[in-house]
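stuck on whats below:

***
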Amino acid sequence: MLIPDFSKHPLVADRLSQLRSKDCCPQEFRRHIVDIAKLLVFPATEQLPLREVSITTPVTETVGHLFARPIILAPILRAGLGLSEGFHQLLPEASIAHYGLARNEETLEPEVYLEKFPTELSAADVFVLDPMLATGGSASVAITGLKKKGAQHLHFVCLVASPEGLTRIKTDHPDVRITCAAIDEGLNEKGYIVPGLGDAGDRTFGTL
């Protein structure tokens, strides 16, 4: 399921426009990613199941609702760490998995170099986090890997998606809910999103 592009929201539009600028320094780039990530938490979690609990307030007894399942954040390294920070600020109870993928610049295909997951994958809502959904290869590989480890309730969150990447995920993993801040025009000959943000990992960590 795809949540529509909401890049026209004034706050998202402002932060995203600053991120796109080649003059945005790493410090500001990281700050804007965290800002947008915190906004994405709300649509990304809006369909999570809840369980009913009894609560004693200072005044009376009442009924409340808590998350029905544990939450796991699974940033795709390195770039996903920026999104993870924003999500973790609003979901401090979440465990964090790490999925290390590097893109082969000749084949444009992702190569796995790290998989580190909490034990409760099968019982949790797992949010795969990556700022860019370009060809969709990295996201699809990460989701496939998580499913092989037992994950059943998967969500994918990105800042900017290409139509090609969205098609790839919807084809490979139609059961995965997608949340994105903006849907861009498409990919260039190098597999980068246009207009995009450039290399989000390099821009986040100042390794241009």
